[in-house]
Amino acid sequence: MQSLSEDEKRQVLGTVLADQLSAIQESVKDVPEIKSKLDKIERTLSEVHADLNTSKAAILDLSRMVNRHEQEIERLQSA
After folding, report:
1. Structural domain boundaries in the chain
2. DSSP string over the chain
């Protein structure tokens, strides 16, 4: 078997590196689109979180109002 010359080794190495670089480029080509989608999801999630906190506060307030009304009704019925 014949061994490769230095130039042939460089050519083979260059080809291997070019193939690897091409594979890396293919793998990361969608990163900007994915980041954009993640940013949108993060904004939406923040809005949902804020809405959820608002809903929780409203439900808690309504619950307190109902409890006060129930107490008032009981008081009036007892009188």
Report:
1. 6-78
2. -PPPPHHHHHHHHHHHHHHHHHHHHHHHTTHHHHHHHHHHHHHHHHHHHHHHHHHHHHHHHHHHHHHHHHHHHHHHHH-
User: Contact, 4 vs 12, CB < 8 A?
Assistant: yes
Interatomic CA distance for residues 1 and 54, integer angstroms = 77
Convert the pLDDT of each residue in 6-48 to its tens digit: 889 899 999 999 999 999 999 999 999 999 999 999 999 999 9
How far is the C-alpha of 55 from the C-alpha of 47, rounded, in Å? Answer: 12
Please choose, from the candidates 17, 39, 21, the residue with its C-alpha nearest in 3D space to the C-alpha of residue 29.
21
Kindly report whether the global pTM for this prediction surpasses the value 0.85.
no
